[in-house]
Design brief:
Elements: H1 2-8, H2 12-19, H3 23-48, H4 52-66, E1 70-75, E2 87-94, E3 108-112, E4 118-119, E5 125-127, H5 134-146, E6 151-157, E7 160-165, H6 171-190
Antiparallel strand pairs: 1-2, 2-7, 3-5, 3-6, 4-5, 6-7
Length: about 190
């Protein structure tokens, strides 16, 4: 064994002389070393690869910020996990600075396909808390119908209007979210 280690440090010709007797063994060792190096490199490359879903989410969230929406991780309105809180992603359209959410402002929410709360006039949607003011309810059915099918909830609070969304759609779905939130906001601002 010591002879092999010393032979590795000898000039190239001497190293070959040691292994000439057993060329098959040398070839096996070389293949084994190449295999190990290849596996290590493949593992490192796999760590660097960004999964397609993560790229998709990054593109959607970047587009949302470009059009003026804030993407926030918050507690889900109704669904909770074993720890008591389920994280959700909401796309928030803030109120304009000129809009006052004064003492008469009433927050409201609508949740899809969760049979808790009061039924709303729109199939599959339930009020979470008090219903929206009448000025908003007039066009709300059309807005709900235009949202992506994986929009889980709409919330109106003092920070703005938000849609809880599972981010399954494409970049066009972000525009649908924005249009829906802007339509609701316009109903508030007009009055």
């Amino acid at each position: 064994m010591l002879g092999l280690l010393c032979a590795a440090w000898m000039p190239h010709g001497s190293f070959d002389a040691v292994y000439t007797e057993n060329a098959e063994h040398r070839q096996t060792v070389e293949y084994f070393i190449i295999l190990i190096v290849t596996l290590v490199l493949a593992a490192k490359l796999a760590q660097l690869h960004t999964p397609r879903r993560e790229k998709h989410l990054a593109a959607i969230r970047t587009r949302a910020r470009e059009v003026g929406l804030r993407v926030e991780w918050v507690s889900d309105l109704l669904r909770v996990d074993a720890a008591g809180v389920a994280p959700a992603v909401r796309y928030l359209l803030p109120w304009p600075l000129s809009f006052a959410t004064d003492a008469g402002f009433i927050p409201w929410g609508l949740v899809r396909d969760v049979r808790r709360g009061r039924a709303s006039p729109w199939s599959g949607w339930y009020w979470h808390g008090p219903p929206a003011p009448e000025l908003v309810r007039a066009g709300l059915g059309e807005i709900l119908a235009s949202l992506p099918c994986d929009a889980a909830a709409i919330q109106c609070d003092r920070s703005g209007l938000a849609i809880y969304w599972s981010e399954q759609g494409d970049l066009d779905a972000v525009v649908k979210l924005l249009n829906g939130l802007e339509n609701i906001r316009n109903n508030y601002i007009k009055h």
